[in-house]
Amino acid sequence: MTSTTPRTITGTRYFYGTGRRKSAIARVRLIPGAGQLIVNGKTTDEYFGGRQLYQQVINEPLAVTSTAGRFSASIKVAGGGVSGQAGAIRHGIARALIAFDASLRQSLKRAGLLTRDSRVKERKHVGLKRARKAPQYTKR
To answer: Could you tell me the CATH number of the domain that includes residue 76?
Structure first.
């Protein structure tokens, strides 16, 4: 788990959280500010191509805790695809919010935002076309 003490870089206090989903890993720094989210040096609209679904996923922890305009975030995310990266960012923001204020834990836990989604793609098995799809059966 992350520590509850705020970290500082060049005199600026921030709250850190790491989020994971599928093979994506997000490192989130929450900085008290105007509410701007920067992902890998781009705004969320630029990074996710303006898809509203990913915007909602990312902003869910902030909406649940009513802290939407209070924090700006600097996010570095790597690995996986866009859906996994959005889920990893959501998980990281939720963990960083707990580092900011431990009393938010209950509402985040109730919304299911602190549990790491451990579902990953199953490997292909020998003799099958995919993980579970068998070749077509022919009787004659």
So the answer is: 3.30.230.10
